Fold this sequence. Notes:
Elements: H1 8-20, H2 46-69
Amino acid sequence: PGTKEPDGALAKDIVWRSVAKGLLMFSPVGPQGCTIKICPPLCITEDAVREGCEVLEESFQEALAARREA
């Protein structure tokens, strides 16, 4: 927080937390693996989009909380 430095470890933690909750994700991409990539199908339902966003939000919150505790 407070920097613009890439954080591949945080991206990886978020992705793996999302996968553990059942959300299909790509491995982090980009410079130093710090970009979270999503690619929903074009025929995705609104309910599936909402559920996926909820999973991502939970994963972000958990990963950031774990980071603060460390």
